[in-house]
Design goal:
Cytidine Deaminase, domain 2; six-stranded mixed beta sheet; signal; alpha+beta; 40% helix
Length: 206
């Protein structure tokens, strides 16, 4: 009796965990209806991040842009080989944001925007993994006081801004990054001192 009860409880917990994981993702229609701000020049943003971080499949790049879409900070990391879960992705993104730029939680309205570029295998069609990244990005932005910006996939087909239908063939998941001369110029660093400037300096070096 005891053994049967334990097995039943474990199965129930496993089912609940699986259901919760599935709920922590956003469908393309939900993402498109969320009012995500459009990038004025998505190819420039993608190319700039591609040059700086040279992503390979399973690499995620989170970047923070100012109101003029100038890059303020960015960080890249490799996705762990575990089931896609928006909560885990949220935590990973939040950890990277905290490393490279101070939060904006004291502001009534966010003025900076975080975008996410994820390099993966497969084609450009939406997957549940993409939905989990979308959920994670939206939640991480809320917790760091940022506007939630575009989610971009980089596959062998090229890049695509999900929910917008905009994309291009270059760069792609296996292309060689262009030089800075052919891409956007690196952002200027603020001249003032202090901890914020130090964070920005380290972010530019990543």
């Amino acid at each position: 009796m005891t053994f049967g009860f334990a097995s039943s409880s474990a199965a129930s917990l496993s089912t609940s965990a699986s259901a919760a994981s599935v709920s922590r993702l956003l469908e393309p229609a939900e993402w498109a209806a969320a009012g995500i701000p459009l990038l004025r020049n998505p190819r420039e943003v993608v190319s700039g991040l591609h040059v700086r971080h040279r992503p390979r499949p399973s690499t995620a790049i989170v970047a923070v842009l100012d109101a003029d879409e100038r890059l303020l900070a960015s960080a890249s990391f490799t996705r762990r080989s575990a089931p896609a879960d928006g909560w885990m992705f949220r935590n990973a993104l939040l950890d990277q944001l905290r490393r490279v730029i101070p939060h904006d939680l004291r502001r009534r309205t966010p003025v900076r925007t975080a975008v996410l570029l994820y390099c993966r295998e497969g084609d450009a069609r939406w997957t549940e993994e993409d939905g989990a990244w979308m959920w994670g990005l939206r939640d991480a932005c809320t917790l760091h006081g940022l506007r939630c910006g575009a989610y971009i996939t980089l596959t062998h087909d090229g890049w695509q801004v999900l929910g917008e239908g905009r994309g291009g063939r270059h760069p792609n998941a296996h292309s060689t990054p262009e030089s800075f001369a052919l891409s956007e110029s690196p952002p200027l660093m603020p001249r003032t001192g202090g901890p914020v400037s130090e964070v920005m300096r380290r972010a530019a070096a990543r």
